[in-house]
Amino acid sequence: MTILSLVMTLISIGFLWFVIRLIRNDTFTINYALTWLLVGVVLLIFSLLPAIPAYLAKIFGFEVTSNFLLFAAVLFCLIQLILFTMSLTKQSNYIKSLVQEVSLLKKEIEEKNKEQ
């Protein structure tokens, strides 16, 4: 095992430990936790078996493995960004409807208080 593989393995284990700690503290929802656990496991596998990313790079036509890893990281970030934007939009619309509902309920309560 090279020094780079050893360092990457330690970083991957540290990353997994950090994610598990966040899960135990209820910082993550299960949807996001599974994604980050998967990322941690993939990082660990790639650091223990560097032939796997080299093989994948060769299959996809990348000359250098680091270019493949960079491409995969950018692609992952773009997908996460789209998913987070979708989630944010959904939550924003939900908050908007809740604010409208609360406003209507306040108005209804005020009208009932005026009648009494």
Q: Can you give a write-up of this model?
A:
By secondary structure, the chain is an all-alpha fold. It has two domains: 1-48; 66-115. The chain has four helices and no strands. The protein has helices spanning 3-24, 30-48, 51-59, 65-115. The longest helix has 51 residues, at 65-115. Pfam families: DUF2304 (PF10066).
Main sheet specs:
none
Rg is 23 Å
Q: Which bin fits the share of residues in helices?
A: over 70%
Task: Count up the domains.
Answer: 2
Global shape: elongated
Question: How much strand content do the residues show?
Answer: under 5%
Distance between the termini: 81 Å
| Helix-strand pattern | HHHH
Residue ranges: pLDDT <50 for 5 or more in a row? Answer: none
Q: What's the tally of helices?
A: 4
The whole-number mean of residue pLDDT values reads: 94
Supply the helix-strand structural class. Answer: mainly alpha
* Number of E strands: 0
| Quaternary structure annotation | single chain
